Amino acid sequence: MEAQRRFLEEAKLSQVVENKPALVWVEPSTTVASVCDELRLHNILSLPVYSKETNEFVGIANVADIALFIAWGSVDLVRKQKEDKPQMSEMELVPRLKFADRPITSFFCIFDASDSVYSVLEPLSKGYHRALVRLTPQASKPEDYRLLTQTDIVRFLFANRDKLDQALLSQTVAQAGLVQGRKNMLCVSEDEALNVLQAFRRMTQRDMNCIGICDKSGRLVCNLSASDLRGMAPDRLKMLLLPVRDYLTAMYGETLCHKLYPITCAPDAKLADVMESVLAHKVHRVWVVDETEQPVGLVSLSDIICKFSPYDYKASNTAPATITSLH
């Protein structure tokens, strides 16, 4: 473990972001429709929000924010606890809303390129899914930054796995404390016939990033997350009234099986194999299923990064503290 820590402390964020593309960003006054257009144009899932008035970043808008806008954008927050059936009149208001209208852009943190990889592990395992990296201390404009994601960190860790603790990489997800049952996952029966909009509302009510759909036997058959809004356009909002499974089929077709069917592993899968799986399939989580294909856990990118962070709350069965600011 000590050798692993030394390596991660010596490795710099400049190594992680050196091949990242130039930053694409939007202003706070940008409409949700325009954000959707930018995300679709660049085939990305998040956009930093930069204020020209104050010359500073004020947040990072991502597909999860889009999901929140779509689920609750025109609905009074006092109605959030209700399982309201979505109305098209509500959905049609969404594209006209601006991000400045509601303070929902993600919390984020800023690091310097000279900071160690080790320094970002704890924030990225405790609620932050992305951060900004300042290329030089004199950075004064958006072009001087790069976006760092959880996937970037997991990719770096896996690429340098020969320098990491081999005993840790060989642990099964069960041994690593990553199989926690219903505690960290949300599943519903397909008999509920939730449409996509209702599913996103259910996720926000439970503070979850994805939802699994199970058949009558309890077998996991598909899952939905904010990343499934990739490429969403205002003229396709009516698709969100489709049942989850029909929506995924319409979005991806039968050919993209890894999008239609969840990526899974067994409780005895090794941590290194799960890391390889999320990278190979370009997903943010792997469902842990038993021999009957019923879900018994969920391993997210946050969970993986947590195993290498200074404080492994998964090993201690302690919930992570919520970080509110690292500016």
From TrEMBL:
Gene Ontology CC, one term: cytoplasm
Residue intervals of the CBS domain: 19-77, 257-316
Recorded superkingdom: Eukaryota
Pfam families noted in UniProt: CBS
Entry keywords, A to Z: CBS domain, Repeat
CDD domains, per the entry: CBS_pair_SF
Protein name: CBS domain containing protein
